[in-house]
Amino acid sequence: MEKNYQILGLETTASLEEIEKKFNVLYKEYNPEKQEGDLKEFFKSEQDKVKEAYKEICLHLIREKEEKEKEEIKEKEKEEFDWEEAKDKVIKEKEDQEYRRTIHDNDDESDLKITNIGKEGLDKMVYWSKFLSVVGYIFLGLLSILALKLFGEWSDEPSTIKTRDMYSDRYGRPRYDYITNNKKEDLFWNLMSLVIFIVVWFFPVRYLNQFASKTRLSLTYNNNRDLGEGLENLGSFFKFYGVIFILSLSVGIIIFLAEIN
């Protein structure tokens, strides 16, 4: 048992609250999805060790509590039966049941209450969300390349254009006038529009990718916390589209009213 406490980096006198807090920190720290290559397998192994140590410690605490209860029952059986004591015993049993339930509820992978049909639906959402987010990243990457190309053209384009005048000076040399280069100005506004588009649409693509990654991790390891984070990103994704829809609808209504008036 001391080995299990050592895995969590705790003393054997640690309280249940300290054990739970340390487990949650280590479980998140050894998340294999944040690693690549051989590190992923190593972190998965370390995460399994932490999880197994936590379970063994919880079971040990439960057994100790049950043994203590048995000793208390034996002592009470020796004493004269008392209705008040019987009542206290029932209350104590209920409290102990809540205690055991609390221990198991704090195990991140033991309380994911999703039906098989629900998991299949989430699995499909994860698949298509991952696919769409990857396509979105590729599309934004291509637009970024186009933005760099426009920036190069804008940098090379002169601010003014030299035009030959219809007359010469007194020495017979041609005179030139300079006019503003409208092409450079057009390139600038096209570049700004493209950059704004890339920045704005990066966020929904990222929300979609985070939803897919977190939910996949939740379905793989039966983890409530990752499922919550995944659904939170999905909510942000729909919130973004809701704002865009409202703005587009408002602009459409304004244009419609302006046309009919």
- The class by helix and strand makeup works out as mainly alpha
Distance between the termini: 81 Å
Q: How many domains, in number, for the residues?
A: 2
With helices defined by DSSP (H or I, 4 residues minimum), what is the helix count?
7
Rg over CA atoms: 33 Å
Model description:
The chain has seven helices and two strands. A hairpin with a 5-residue loop joins strand 1 (160-168) and strand 2 (174-180). The protein has two domains: 2-105, no CATH class; 116-157 and 192-260, no CATH class. A two-stranded antiparallel ribbon has the order 1-2. It is mainly α. The termini are far apart. Helices cover 78% and strands 6% of the residues. The protein is elongated.
Descriptive key words:
261 residues, mainly alpha, 2 domains, two-stranded antiparallel sheet, 2 strands, 78% helix, elongated
